[in-house]
Design brief:
The protein is mainly beta and 201 residues long. It has two domains: 16-99, no CATH class; 103-199, Sandwich (Immunoglobulin-like). The protein has helices at 16-22, 27-31, 65-76; strands at 44-49, 52-57, 83-86, 89-91, 103-107, 113-114, 119-124, 130-136, 142-149, 158-163, 173-182, 189-199. The protein starts with 15 loop residues before the first helix and ends with a strand.
Length: 201
C-alpha cells in the first residue's frame, strides 16, 4: 500500500477523500504499476463524528484486507480522524501492518513538486528502527544519501522525519527519493520504495 496525492479544493467534505480513492489510480500512478484493491463500481458514504469515520457501503460487497487498508489509511489521513468503522468493525492503522511497507513515506508523495532541501516524514517498522535513503536528481545522479532512525522499530511502527542536504538539478524534471532497508545478512537493498518527484532549478 502506498499513499498518493490528490487536489480536492479548499472545502473538505466527509466523503471527498474516499471519492478520490474510489476513482482509482490516475495515469501517472498506473505508469508506476499502482492499482486498487477496491471493487470496480463500489459506492460508499462517509460521516465523521468524534474522531471516527463511519463508512457505509452502497452494496454488500465483502472487502479484502488490502481494500480495507486502503480505506482506513485514506480516511485516517484526514485531520481529527483516528479510526474507521465499516461493516460492523472499527479499524485503526495498526490493524494493517502486513499491508503497509516497512518504510511508509507520507510526505513528499509521488509526483509532488519539491524544492531543495526536501523534508520527508512518515512511519517505519524496520530492524533496529533504521533505514536508508538515496536522493537522485533529474539526471539520475545521486545528490544525497544517508541513514535514518525512526522513533521505534523491530515490530513496533515508529515515526520519522529527515531533511536532505541542499542540492541542485541540471534541468527541471523528475528525480527520485528512494527508501530501503539493508539486509543484515549481506548488506543488499531490501523493501525498496522509489518515489518520483518533480524537481526544478
Amino acid at each position: 500500500m502506498w499513499p498518493v496525492a490528490r487536489e480536492v479544493g479548499d472545502v473538505l467534505f466527509d466523503d471527498v477523500a474516499l471519492d478520490q480513492l474510489l476513482a482509482g489510480p490516475n495515469a501517472d500512478e498506473m505508469q508506476l504499476g499502482l492499482e486498487t484493491a477496491l471493487p470496480e463500481g463500489l459506492g460508499a458514504d462517509v460521516t465523521v463524528e468524534d474522531g471516527v469515520a463511519t463508512v457505509e457501503l452502497v452494496d454488500a460487497t465483502e472487502l479484502t484486507r488490502e481494500a480495507l487498508a486502503q480505506i482506513v489509511y485514506t480516511e485516517t489521513a484526514l485531520p481529527l480522524v483516528e479510526s474507521v468503522a465499516i461493516g460492523g468493525e472499527t479499524y485503526s492503522r495498526s490493524d494493517f501492518e502486513k499491508q503497509t511497507p516497512s518504510v511508509l513515506v507520507e510526505s513528499p508523495l509521488a509526483f509532488e513538486d519539491v524544492t531543495s532541501p526536501i523534508t520527508a516524514t512518515g512511519t517505519a517498522n524496520t530492524f533496529e528502527a533504521t533505514f536508508h535513503y538515496t536522493l537522485t536528481d533529474t539526471d539520475g545522479l545521486i545528490v544525497d544519501e544517508d541513514f535514518v532512525t525512526a522513533t521505534s522499530g523491530t515490530g513496533i511502527r515508529g515515526t520519522f522525519e529527515f531533511t536532505t542536504d541542499e542540492y541542485t538539478v541540471p534541468f527541471d524534471g523528475i528525480g527520485s527519493l528512494i527508501v530501503f532497508e539493508r539486509s543484515a545478512e549481506d548488506g543488499s537493498k531490501m523493501n525498496v520504495v522509489e518515489i518520483p518527484l518533480r524537481m526544478s532549478r
